[in-house]
Amino acid sequence: MLKVPSRPAPLKGCGELDTPAIYHTTRVYLRRLDAIQSGFLKDIGVDDVTALVEFHLAPLCTRRDMAMLGPIHRTALGKGPPPFQKYFKKYNNDLTLHDPRVGSRSPLIKRSALGLVAVYNLLPHSIRAAKSVPAFQKSLQEIVKKYATSGYPQWSDVLSPRLALTSHPLATHFQ
Length: 175
Prior knowledge:
The protein starts with 13 loop residues before the first helix and ends with a helix.
């Protein structure tokens, strides 16, 4: 007889399980993956902003950014795995992290989790001060919603390290 657990484990989308492995991939390949959710939403007549605001379903590219910012924040809180402390170093007791992109010309670093440190540092202090990763990620979702509902054209990339830092939306809007 098949025994069903009384409390099933939470399910994640198959794309979310592989996020760390694919995060650094070029946009050409990631767009193919993103098209799955976009196509589904189009088929049921729901636009991306409605999916975000009413159903809390951010585009996959945004969900990848939020997912990868989680371990960075956990490490900044001093709760991350020891190997992460090597890559995500805090300046003194500040909530700012050392940016591994400084001095590097590698496009791979820019689009990897290491590139997200620059985005993390652009986040408002109040968000970086979140005491837990779930609270931090909820704040990230609220930032994305704010950009989406304001009509900002690249709202789904607001947490992306792939945008130029000099004109990054976190550095130029809503501060």
